[in-house]
Structure formats: C-alpha cells, structure tokens
Amino acid sequence: MLTHISVDGFRSLSNFEMEIRPGLNILIGPNGSGKSNIISYFQFLSRLARTGLSDAVSLTGGAGAFFQKTGETKYTNRVTAVTRGLTFVEEIDKSDRAGWMLYEYRFGIHASERFDSIIFSEQEIRLSSIGGVRSDVPAMDALQHEYFDWDLVIESSTTPAHARVVKLSDGWLAREASKAISRKDILDQFDRDISEASFESISLIRLRSRFFNPILYIAGDFLGGETLSIDPAEVKRPEDSAREPGIRSDGSGLAATLWHMLNEPTYKAYDYPYYSRPRNFQYWRGRGWAKVYKQLQSLIQLVNSQIQNVYVTNEPFDNQLKIKVRMEGPRGDVDLPLSAMSDGTIKWASLITAILTHRSIFAIEEPENFLHPLMLTEIVKLMRESTSEKFSFVIMTTHSETLLNAASPYDVIVVSMEHGITRGRRPANPDQLLREIQETGFGLGHYYLAGDLSDA
C-alpha cells in the first residue's frame, strides 16, 4: 500500500505532503479547500498504472486542469512527485522469494511552452526487499526511506536521454541464483526491455522485465486510486460472461464479480495478478469466496430485509450475465431483475462489493450523497474490517456528522486552502481529542461542525 505522497505543481498541490495510514484516511475541510484535488492525484496515479502519460493527463482533465495555475492565463509547466509504499511480493511457484518490499517512485513531468507535448523529464524507482511473512507487517515508523539501503535503483532521464540500472545489490542477484544468471545478463536484458518502451511517455512502474517483476506490484498499489462514482444505470446493464471480475469506478462489473464468486474455484482467485497486467481484484486469504459472498448477502439485507438472495444468471443465447434478486412476497418468494431495485439499493450493493473485493486503495467522495445516514456507520465498520485484513487504505471526503461520529481522530486529515495552496494535516493531539469525545459523549462529527478540529 502507499504510505506517503509528496506533490508539487499539480493543481493546488504545491509542496504538498501527506502521510497515508492503513485503514481510513478521511479528508475534511470546507468546500474549495482542495480535497477533490487530492483525490484527483490518486486518480492520476491509477491511470499511470494503466496507460501512457498523455492519456493519463487527458483523463485527469487535460493540461489545463493538471498543472498549477499561476495567473489568469498562466500555468506552471512542471509537476514533481514522490510516492512511497510497502507491499507484499509473492511470485507464483517461488515461495522462497516472498516477502515485504519497500519502494519509492519519483517522477518529474514537463510540458512544452505551448503545452502540446507532455513528457516524463525524469523517473526513478527504488526497491528494497525486507523479507518477512504476510501476517507480520513491518512497523511503519521503522521504515525511513531517506536512509534505506536499496536493493534496486532504476532511473531514466531526457537530459541526457538514458535509462539505466543505477544499483543492483547482491541480495537481488541472489533471487536469480538458481538460474545461474549473471549481473551482466540481467543488465543486458534490461537494456533490451527498456529499448522497446518509451520512458518519456510510459511510467517505469509499467516496465515489463523478466528480472524485475516486483516493480509491477507498485502498479497494483496504484490501481485503486480511481474514485468510486456509482451510476445505477451502468450497474443495471447486463455484462458479457467473459468480462473480468472487479468493480469499476462507475460501479459496473457487479454481475461479473458475483458470477466469479459463485463459479470460480479459490485457486483461480487472481491472487497473483501482475504477470499479465495489474488488476485491482483480490481474493481474501483464509476465507474463501463462499464466506465473502455470504457476508455480501447479509450486508445487502441491511438496506432491504425482504431481499432473500442476490444471484447471477448466464443467458445461454447471448452469454450475458444478469443479476436477479429474490424477494420475499405475501404469496411466496419472487425473482426480480436488478433494475427493479431502488437506486440506493443498487449503489449500496456495488459499493460493498467493491470494498470486499478491491485489492488496494480506492477513493470515495462524500458517500453521504448516495447512502442513507444509517448506512454510513455500517460502511465505516466494513471499511475498517476490509482494510485491516488486506493491509490497505481508503481515501474519503465527507461533511457528514454521522459518518465522522463513527470515525476516530486518528482517521481524519484536515484540509485547508492558504493563499491558493492546499494544505493537509492530521490533528496534533488525537489522544486528547479522543479523551474529550469519550468524556463528553459527543462524536467527532460534533467537533468538526463546531469548527474545533481546525485548531486541534
């Protein structure tokens, strides 16, 4: 998962830094403070993991909405950023290579004078294997990136144009010892791999090289940055039976995901997703799809107790997946199409499925706009459970007192705008604030609406 971002030159983010913690990271602050710009940056990272730089910028609003505005018609033409993270690497049939990996990805993006050409002016990836088992997550405070002894460092630059391996430790070489691969063989292969890619327009995290597969795990961490903005009309559409499972940003993919849960064996659960291309869909270890599906059914019943079951049929004529809902009726159960359900029920079903199946981060802007107040507390509980088990996090914006009352002072990041620049900080005294909440009985939402978190 990502643990830290530092951004300069992206919209209102100038010398902006944010620590990311496992679990909930709730952005609070007035309208216009830049919360959406923070969310948009995570969306940009997600798109970098899927496509080239130009397309990623275009999908994030284009050059006019990407670079920081410095005047009425002027923009800065450079964005620099550092993204840090910690992820568990596990290669198929290579259990001896499993372990935690620390990483850091830096880039500089430069636009031409007319903003008609946007390139990576420089990139750098740093990786270090720190071992351990999946259940033993390294202490975050002990991981000091500035002084870490990296195993692998790869950089690219346009001035002068080059891409090279700066450091390749003996520890990394030991990973290939069983194949008797030499340092020279690895470097020669890297030169052949990189020559086929344009490092000016493609992120190094998408580098395909037989010796640097763990790099693709970074792409996997980036993938979840898309904001969930669920459109019931998209969720209702029948889906092709060949569609990959996973909830998309518009909420679609529900039929394919439920079909996968009901029909795929656990060994085909996409637990090793990065050799063909990254996916943001993950099987929960130790639970099995049956338990996840059962939990999903019970959560759907929270919004409508008459729902007995939600299942998927594959129409033999056109191989279209269609969701059916079995409802309790006065004369017995009746099966209805998903389209017969309310928009609120459909959004809830898609959202909780995304939470239960996403591998990495995802962002939700103001869930109170489409969820019943009673469901906001449930969604916070579900997110805590999901992120704890998967070692991941959620970025969320909200103005809801109900949602914040279910949150902790450790979850929130107070966002403000100072002279056109977005600033974000966590409460300085979360312990004291938590004691006050416990003593007074008022929730965190009360303190937020009263304006007390601005100086906390």
TrEMBL record:
One of its GO terms (molecular function) is ATP hydrolysis activity. It holds the Pfam family AAA_21. Residues 24-405 form the ATPase AAA-type core domain. Gene3D superfamilies: P-loop containing nucleotide triphosphate hydrolases (3.40.50.300). This is ATPase AAA-type core domain-containing protein. It comes from Hypericibacter terrae.
